[in-house]
Design goal:
The chain is α+β, with helices and mostly antiparallel strands. The chain has helices at 11-63, 69-75, 101-106, 162-202, 215-261, 266-294, 304-318, 340-358, 403-407, 416-426; strands spanning 82-87, 123-128, 134-140, 146-152, 300-303, 326-329, 335-338, 361-366, 375-381, 430-435, 441-448. A hairpin with a 5-residue loop joins strand 2 (123-128) and strand 3 (134-140). Bound molecules: adenosine-5'-triphosphate (ATP) and magnesium ion.
Length: 449
Amino acid sequence: MKSWRVWPQSLAGRTALVLLLALTAVQAAGLTIHALDRVDLQRFAQAREISARAISAWRTVNLAPADRRAQMLAELELPQGLDATLDGRPIARLDQPPIPPPIARMLRLDLLGSGPPRFRPREVLTSWGERSPVFFVSLRLPSGEWLNLRISLPPPRPWHSETFLIAFFAMTLAAGLLINWAVRRLTRPVRLLAEAAERLGRDVNAPPMPERGPTEVAKAAHAFNTMAERIRRFVGDRTQMLAAIGHDLRTPITRLRLRAEFMDDDEQRRKMLADLDEMEAMVAATLAFARDDSAGEPTVALDLAALCRTVLDEAADARPDLADAIGYKGPERLVVQARPVALKRALANLVGNALLYGGAARLVLTAPEAPGGEPVRLAVEDEGPGIPVDQLEAVFQPFRRLEASRNRETGGTGLGLPIARNIFRAHGGDVVLRNREAGGLVALATLPG
Ligand SMILES: Nc1ncnc2c1ncn2[C@@H]1O[C@H](COP(=O)(O)OP(=O)(O)OP(=O)(O)O)[C@@H](O)[C@H]1O
Ligand SMILES: [Mg+2]
């Protein structure tokens, strides 16, 4: 199960995340600035409205005949946040701090004190209310009564405009989608390059990458194709040289054989002919190795389970005495992309070794649990003596044979394991050897699933 990570693994994911975070930060800053601006504006508009009504209340009360003042005041339409009453005493209290001049100016309370003398209140008291945006203003009428104003500035609503919010979110969403798209497009060449490298690992003759797109991408693709071409040439040269040496050695070996026939010493002649036989076998194996390599067999979809069973059947036919020690465990059918002839040779080499040196060959095929990612696993187990730990890798060297098998008349050349590893690696897999705890050796091979 994949654990959920905040920090994405892919370059595209990381770039997109960083850009999205930056975008969100910028948007949030923009939104805050806008909101602060709106709050200022709303406060200012509220203050103007309230002060205009407060002044008109004062004038109304001031001009009205004393007996109708209370009634006229009640009939006045006052905005939300303004409350005016006519009382015997002021509500603005002297023991509370007065309204600071900037707020007083915003509320235009100073106008009250600057009208024509007849409108001027005899006394003006201001103070803060108990809760903060509430102010009390008390104005003394010539009659000695007090006009008490309670002013509260309702909390500003910076997010009031719905269209603004919708537009804002639509913009963020659009920018997010755009970032996602652009980042994917930008990182696509990296993905393509990785895929091409993967293909080249499996098959040297994989088709070249298209050298299109932006300069940097085209340049990288060109460099990659040049490198692939060099590798191809190098591999080709090496196999050709191997084939040439193998071929040219055959003539001197034949000449030597002829000469050996004329030797007098029987014992020496027999030994020399045996050596020459071995040399001939090695040359033949080398030639076969070189031929295989350059064959360029196409990759097809094949049933690996069926291929395994065929190899085992053929091994059982060749060694009927060991038929009981040969077995297969695994799925009925498992399709993989592979080169059938090469893969069969690799499997036959592993099974052949298991039978020859371990007296048994049990093949276990394991399909990946989920397609993609996990490789297909293949194990060939035997019941022989195994291989000393320090030789487990060495036997993959060409012509490397262990003492125990040298002395035996097995006739091998020491190319079976290197050929098998070459083939598995050319498929994008690998093969290693391990000694089993229960005794015997196991060859563990993998193929991409
Ligand atoms: N299953 C095994 N158990 C023990 N030793 C092994 C086993 N498989 C390989 N070996 C050792 O590794 C050596 C190299 O194996 P490899 O298959 O490369 O060559 P070979 O079997 O000797 O010759 P060829 O396969 O070319 O006919 C063998 O000679 C043998 O000593
Ligand atoms: Mg072998």
